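Batch job 17 of 40 flagged for manual review because the log was empty.
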Amino acid sequence: MKAPQIVLATGKRKAAVARATVRKGIGKVRVNERPLELVEPEIVRQKIQEPLLMVGDRVKNIDIAVQVRGGGIVGQASAARTAVARGLLIWLKDDSLRDMFRHYDRSLTVNDPRRKLPKRPGGRGATQRRQKSYR
């Protein structure tokens, strides 16, 4: 079977949605048109790099471009991490890599389904109610 020319993968976390495009190249990784080395803060960069470090030298001949929208910086990092890991799984077609990702952290291959509770009437948030002033 012929290797794919381009692979699209998605990742979600909270309100953040990431789309990763994997294609043959020279090992460049870009997040929102910026090289991964310039992504700040460092903890976010390390979070996105996790699946790349687990794959090793097989990343040297592919380029990955990630577009992330919505949410905060940590949610975007988690969504980008999931998108990159899924793209690598589809591109490399390696079942042992899938098992390694699952064993390390399930969120590498599975979107986070948790969402915010809707606000309820009579209070400030989802669970809090206004206090009565009489007894």
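Reviewer: the log was empty due to a logging misconfiguration, but the result itself is present. Residues 73-92 form the longest helix (20 residues). Unflagging and moving on to job 18.
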